Amino acid sequence: MAVISGKPIQNTFLAQYCQGNWQSNTKNPSLLFALGIRSTQPLQGWKLAWTDMSAMQSHILPTTGINLRKRTSFMCNAAQGTSTVSSFEKVDFFKLQNGSDIRGVAVAGVEGEPVNLTEAVAEAIAAGFAAWLLERKEPNESRRLRISIGHDSRISAQKLQDAISHGLVGAGLDVIQYGLASTPAMFNSTLTEDESYFCPVDGSIMITASHLPYNRNGFKFFTNAGGLGKADIKNILERSANIYEKFSDASMKESIQASKETVNKVDYMAIYTSDLVAAVRKAAGNKEKPLEGFHIVVDAGNGAGGFFAGKVLEPLGAITTGSQFLDPDGFFPNHIPNPEDKVAMKAITKAVLENKADLGIIFDTDVDRSAAVDSNGQEFNRNRLIALMSAIVLEEHPGTTIVTDSVTSDGLTTFIEKKLGGKHHRFKRGYKNVIDEAIRLNSIGEESHLAIETSGHGALKENHWLDDGAYLMVKLLNKLASAKASGSSSGSKVLTDLVEGLEEPAVAVELRLKIDQNHSDLKGGSFRDYGEAVLKHLENRVNSDTNLKKAPINYEGVRVSGYGGWFLLRLSLHDPVLPLNIEAPTNEDAVKLGLAVLAAVKEFFALDTSALDKFVQQS
Ligand SMILES: O=P(O)(O)OC[C@H]1O[C@H](O)[C@H](O)[C@@H](O)[C@@H]1O
Questions:
Q1: What's the pTM value of the predicted model, to 2 decimals?
Q2: Ligand 1 mutation pick, 340, 455, 512, 527, max ligand atoms within 8 A of CB
């Protein structure tokens, strides 16, 4: 065993890391030590395949063997040990479900986090997806069903891509690998009509774990009807568990062999990015370089979003110097690629101010979420991003309904309804929930054009309800370009002006209260039942407190107004946690709201209220 950051790391990981076509941009000296590399110099050019793909002569590469084990090894003197996790170890497939995604640990080396997303598991999941799809979609006579696969910058991407390809090919499907890609591009590939790129594909898989740490990975699945939901994922996992049980070394070898002959690679991101460029040009009256004169910096957090600077902004005429962390690096050495993360937002704000840029744009790892920063360093994030997008969408579709998640502010409702003349439908947390709700509203005759979360997920009706952080930013670019063309404004002032009048609370916090699932107070019940009991008790207390008023319409948890602010206590979508959001005009008022919650939950002994205790004491 070698050592990474003081923790044991197994040779499997080192071997994979060294064999793949990866570059270490990492500044992590202990990793380099673990890899047996004494100087960072030889690692130059050891880079994840973004540039490789874009440098393709033709957009289609010849059929390739995809077994990375055959590739040249780079400077690495770590022994290629065998995995300590047997490929066929017993695996609880259902533990891999995370709402409508699959998430697991794909890289060994972090204490207490054993690998449960092995290559064999990934192969079984791919075969499960294939079986699920084949039941819903008949291959036509001329061709087999085809699936696109893309991945973000994670270090386990290549091995999982190979494993998934084996599973799909073994199930009789064709595979087209896109390499480094964004989640929205993968959905888009189910809609694109271009046979020379093997599009539209019948299904698509994105390998990503969004902003989670480097050792995790996961999958998102798409068909042309959108992202698969919870029930579909459960169904796929049931099938996968059965398939996995029947795996043998011989069957796995066969699928590896078959993959060598049937896997294609295409540079699909070229189509996706040129569509984004075309959308901005069209909105600007078919001007070739509508962003000429704008200086826009991008922060991709070393995820998959680096393309936005060179492949979208620059062709549109923008200057992008000062953009940062565009190179993929699955160790995310600079900051967590997550617009909800304070450090990440600080980093892009600093870049905007230092470069005197007009706008800053930041993406999460797989580019389904984004946020922006204006030239004064003011963030368009959370409620402000929703307000900005609502202003843009409501100009185009007066009166439309904006569907948001549950933790949006009261000030946002007032802004959307009083200032913009729209309707705010505050629904549940979860991007799939808000998108599905907007689609449902349209189907019953209530027009809605935007579904958006405070997390930075957002989808527009005009863009097939595709949850796309890059497309959200395209809408901002359109606004910049049209304001410039009409001479009304240059720089990001046009955007800042659009959110003028949005009331923002002085205090806004989210505290996450954990439920100890092993606590005797659960009396053998589930954490969900326990959480529901906490919420019921809180609701009863609120009903008898004259300072507090329950929100008349609410779809999730207990939302209450009082002391000039509000709080929402709800169950997390995924974790044994009750997130508590509080917004108030002063610290004192926020504490009063916090104390009201604390009084109601204090006798639930399995609930860890330490974050709330600290909040009410400190403020
Ligand atoms: O319920 P929580 O634990 O706060 O998590 C809720 C969040 O989970 C994931 O990150 C989803 O991608 C988001 O759409 C959702 O809002």
A1: 0.86
A2: 455
At residue 22, does pLDDT exceed 90? no
Q: Is the CB of 579 under 6 A from ligand 1?
A: yes
**Mean pLDDT of the region 410-433:** 97
Question: Could you say which architecture CATH assigns to the domain 2-266?
Answer: 3-Layer(aba) Sandwich (3.40)
Q: Which of 367, 513, 573, 578 to mutate for ligand 1's pocket (most ligand atoms within 8 Å of CB)?
A: 573
Q: Kindly state which CATH superfamily the domain 507-618 is placed in.
A: Alpha-D-phosphohexomutase, C-terminal domain (3.30.310.50)
CA–CA dist 301, 310 (Å, integer)? 15
User: Does the CB atom of residue 369 touch ligand 1 within 6 A?
Assistant: no
Q: Residue 434 CA: which ligand 1 atom is closest?
A: 14
Cα distance between residue 598 and residue 368, in whole Å: 36
pLDDT in tens, 321-344: 999 999 999 999 999 999 999 999
Bigger pLDDT: 153 or 83?
A: 153
Same fold, 273-498 and 507-618: no
Helical residues (DSSP H) of 77-156, grouped into ranges: 119-136
Fold adopted by 273-498: Alpha-D-Glucose-1,6-Bisphosphate; Chain A, domain 3 (3.40.120)
Question: Which residue bears the tokens 């049209």?
Answer: 482
Q: What is the mean pLDDT of the chain?
A: 87
pLDDT at 619: 59
Q: What's the pLDDT score for residue 262?
A: 76
For ligand 1, whether the C-beta of 573 sits within 6 Å is: yes
Domain ranges (residues) in the chain: 2-266, 273-498, 507-618
Residue 91, burial from CB neighbour count under 10 angstroms (0-12, 13-18, 19+)? buried
Of 572, 238, 614, nearest in space to 405 by CA: 572
- Given the structure tokens 């959308």, which residue do they identify? 279
CA dist 409 and 528 (Å) reads: 26
| 564 pLDDT more than 60 | yes
State phi, psi for 206 to the nearest 5 degrees: -105, 130
Q: Is the pLDDT of residue 228 over 60?
A: yes
For residue 484, what pLDDT band results from cuts at 50, 70 and 90? confident
* C-alpha pair distances (Å), 31 with each of 41, 320, 370: 15, 31, 30
